[in-house]
Amino acid sequence: MRKQIAAANWKMNKTLSEGEQLLKGILGGMGEVQEHQQVVFAIPYPYLLKSNESIGAKKNTFVAAQNCHHKTSGAYTGEVSVDMLQSICIKYCIVGHSERREYFSESNSMLADKVNLCLSKSIVPIFCCGEPLNVREAGIQNEFVQQQLQESLFHLDADAIQQVVIAYEPIWAIGTGKTASSDQAQDMHKHIRSVLAKQFGQDVAGNISILYGGSVKGSNAKEIFSQPDVDGGLVGGASLVADEFLQIIKSLK
Ligand code: PEP
User: Of 97, 99, 189, 191, which is the active-site residue?
Assistant: First the structure.
């Protein structure tokens, strides 16, 4: 059974003490995470080590990096490698968030390298895909997302792709308060799963968690997550408020 996942993306927010308080509030309120569910916190690099300690042995709860570099090591001032992440026991890493694609010119082929590096170190890539508004308005969002998947993930074999979590995040819905309707989310998730099924087989596609991201809040999470091909969410703004994120966790199937 594929996992149902609530993943927080703090982006470049919170000081250490603010982050500690937020994490404490969520960990204290969320109770036990069921075996088929996971809760993931993608937090800023400086707090990864400490947050991993705070989470400790809490079941099915993990810390994620928000990014990694696409080379193994070397003269890349300011960057963080997957080896470094592995050395501090990080199990998840967001790859290809639309903000990184846009502001740091991350290409599909660079993201394929990041996915490979993550998998080589047993780090689960949370691979983000999704179309900008003009693509949605032109009605070619399915083709656009398919190309992102093909160019960054289709070199993998059936075992490797099942280690990847996919997050569909329509760019027009990120941080805008404009959520995709649950039908729009389901349509795209179904499309993604059918594209995966064609490449890797139905059984493999059925094992891959596909998260929705884009203005998920406590009040809309349940409806979006109830869609058959939506396996939880990647959450920005609402993950910075303990009560909101707790409600989102409670909305997992
Ligand atoms: C995100 O950053 O991945 C995201 C979905 O942000 P928000 O929830 O704020 O739209």
Answer: 97
In sequence order, the β-bridge partners of residue 33 are none
Centre of ligand 1 to C-alpha 63, Å, is: 17
Which residue has the least CA distance to atom 2 on ligand 1?
236
Q: Please indicate whether residue 234, judged by its CB atom, sits closer than 6 Å to ligand 1.
A: yes
CATH architecture of 4-250: Alpha-Beta Barrel (3.20)
Q: Where are the beta strands (DSSP E) in 170-213?
A: 210-213
Does residue 169 have an active-site annotation? yes
Going by C-alpha positions, the residue among 42, 62, 43 that lies closest to residue 52 is 62
pLDDT digits (tens, 9 = 90+) for 81-91: 999 999 999 99
Active site residue 97: yes
Phi, psi dihedral angles at 123 (to 5 degrees): -105, 130
> 114 near 94, Cβ under 8 Å?
no
pLDDT above 90: residue 42: yes
* pLDDT, tens digit (0-9, with 9 covering 90-100), for 156-173: 999 999 999 999 999 998
Q: In the block, which residue shows the tokens 């493999």?
A: 204
